[in-house]
Amino acid sequence: MSLDTRLCVERSTFTLDTSLAAASGEVVAVLGPNGAGKTTALHALAGLAPLSGGHVRVAGRLWEGEGTHLPPQARSTGLVAAEHLLFPHLSARDNVAFGPRSRGTSRAAARRRADDELDRLGIGDLADRRPSALSHGQAQRVALARALATDPELLLLDEPLSALDPVSRPAVRATLAHRLRAFTGVTVLVTHDPLDALTLADRLVFVEGGRVVQEGTPQEVVARPRDRYVADVVGLNLYAGEATDGEVVQTPAGPVVTAGHEHRGPSWAAFSPAAVALYLSRPEGSPRNTWPVTVAAVELAGQTARVRCTGDLDVTAEVTATSVASLRLQPGLQAWATVKASEVRAYPA
Amino acid sequence: MTDAAEPMAAEPVAAGRIRAAGGTRLGLLAPAGLAVALVALPLLALLLRADWGHVLDHLADPAVLPAIRLSLLTTTTTVVLAVVLGTPLAWLLARAQGRAAAWFRALLTVPLVLPPVVGGVALLMAWGRRGVVGGPLYEAFGVRVPFTPVAVVLAELFVAMPFYVIAVEGAMRSVDPRFEHVAATLGASPWRSFSRVALPLAVPGMAAGAALAWARALGEFGATITFAGNFAGRTQTAPLAVYVALERDPQAAVSLSLAMLVVSIVVLALLRGRWVR
């Protein structure tokens, strides 16, 4: 493993204790709600925040732990934050050349390297501009070029796209995805945007309250979330319970009938919001999964709407905009939610 | 007009309130106007009484020119020393946390509020022939500090350096520490991240601090006359020359004052948009 770390950091509100491992060239996305300790984890990797325990080993070299603490400048990292943090008094080229210069490269070679790196990100023509003359998207690309120009073993991306406007975000995301494919070091990407994680990362690590609650490939996590927060992120309804027989998961709020499963014991039951149908009165000859609910919130996105419902079982439904209008869905409305058993997947907890 | 007057007539209470508002405004305007007059009048008087035809002759007077020369020399030395010594101090204070930094900051503020003549006495106690440092210095090397141009610089430094340090500390404190974090991850040593990132970003603040310190040093009177004396050509700076000239040749004093007023306004113009809005 090229990155092998266990990060323990004491904070006033929580204790971070997170293990991360990744091979060369891999992108690990760390996801979690605000205040989950994601940025703290990155700062600990960069050497900007001291560890209270654990270790950081990168490419076989111990950066921290067992009495060792390399200062940030002795670690081979590149850091990109939400704000570009380009040095305002330097041109784009000199910003990118700053790293190679700091590591002892000659002025001419550092500038050549900067120009190459800017060219690779498609912004070679902006090399002479000051940060104040760049758009947000351009500046963030320069910041990425600056972080990569030292060929770091560990690239740390802290919500790199979150401060961008919706127009430039997809373009910068595409640039980032393209450049990361050619990057040979380990990338740790902190984000709360599932789209960043799913499109950029090889592995996802979910952190909540300073601890890892789930990790796996994007496919695994999307298919089988094992935490309410994870389920929210990937947009699934998720319930914990006991698989008592081959077709029912008993949850504290009652039985959920599934498409059928082999395992017994602690189990998750999951279904997509699109599988949920809403009715104003109890449907006749109703499916076996039928629950009375109260509409809590309706969010319209294009032709579909997400309807959050509360009840014995909290259910999120995805319905058409037309249904929102015909059922007059609004907070406080009493309704019935149904899900076909064939749409419910169960897997061991 | 009639529209506005009618409700007033119909509602005497409202009319009374409006008159009260007018009274309040007058109550504020009178002292405010007096305050402006108290400041502006002396400056205006200086301009009115100046012998404009002979200002340059007065400044070239053998009794005045050496004082101007000495003032330029000592204030420039003071500012250079303040920048060289004060910048690292300002940086340390800007990034320091905890008690010690707060105490140093408080210590630096003392010369700002201390009567300058007390500063002069304190300087004598430190550097005088029987002073804490001056005594051993005299006995070991026969070096006497008081009543020399060096004493002038020490006096100016005593009052001007705190101005510089406090101005620059403010400017450096506003440099986002995350720039230094990024510089460190890029491999920059703390020295490189200070000299290549923090320092350039603080340059406007340093310029303002230097101008402020220079203006303060130029006007230094009390500490200088106490500690360095008033020897023409040796320790007599421009403000001291003005004071002396006032008895001998008042017009020359006015001309020299005028020159220093112009210099002060130039400094003010340099600071515009930074300290003066």
Task: Note down, in words, how this protein is organized.
With 349 residues, chain A is of the alpha+beta class. Chain A has two domains: 3-223, 3-Layer(aba) Sandwich (Rossmann fold); 235-348, OB fold (Dihydrolipoamide Acetyltransferase, E2P), CATH 2.40.50. Helix content of chain A is 25%, strand content 36%. Chain A has helices at 38-46, 92-102, 107-120, 136-148, 168-181, 194-200, 218-223, 228-234, 321-327; strands at 3-10, 15-22, 27-31, 53-58, 61-65, 68-69, 77-80, 154-158, 186-191, 203-208, 211-216, 237-243, 248-251, 254-257, 265-271, 276-279, 289-301, 304-311, 315-320, 334-339, 345-348. In chain A, strand 1 and strand 2 form a beta hairpin. In chain A, helix 2 (92-102) packs across helix 3 (107-120) and helix 4 (136-148) packs parallel to helix 5. The longest helix of chain A has 14 residues, at 107-120. Chain A starts with a strand and ends with a strand. With 277 residues, chain B is mostly helical. Chain B has two domains: 1-49; 55-274, MetI-like (MetI-like fold, Orthogonal Bundle), CATH 1.10.3720.10. Chain B has 13 helices and no strands. Classes of the chains: A alpha+beta (349), B mainly alpha (277). The A-B interface holds A 43, 46-48, 71-73, 75, 77-79, 81, 83, 85, 87-89, 98-99, 102-103, 146-147, 150, 156 and B 176, 178-179, 181-190, 192, 196-197, 200-201.
Strand and helix map with partners:
The complex is a heterodimer of chains A (349) and B (277).
Chain A: E1 3-10, E2 15-22, E3 27-31, H1 38-46, E4 53-58, E5 61-65, E6 68-69, E7 77-80, H2 92-102, H3 107-120, H4 136-148, E8 154-158, H5 168-181, E9 186-191, H6 194-200, E10 203-208, E11 211-216, H7 218-223, H8 228-234, E12 237-243, E13 248-251, E14 254-257, E15 265-271, E16 276-279, E17 289-301, E18 304-311, E19 315-320, H9 321-327, E20 334-339, E21 345-348
Parallel strand pairs in A: 3-9, 3-10, 7-8, 8-9
Antiparallel strand pairs in A: 1-2, 1-4, 4-5, 5-6, 10-11, 12-13, 12-15, 13-14, 15-21, 16-20, 17-18, 17-20, 18-19
Helix pairs in contact in A: 2-3, 2-4, 4-5
Chain B: H1 2-10, H2 12-49, H3 55-59, H4 65-95, H5 99-113, H6 116-127, H7 134-141, H8 149-173, H9 177-185, H10 190-219, H11 222-227, H12 238-248, H13 250-271
Helix pairs in contact in B: 1-2, 4-8, 4-10, 4-12, 5-8, 6-8, 8-10, 9-10, 10-13, 12-13
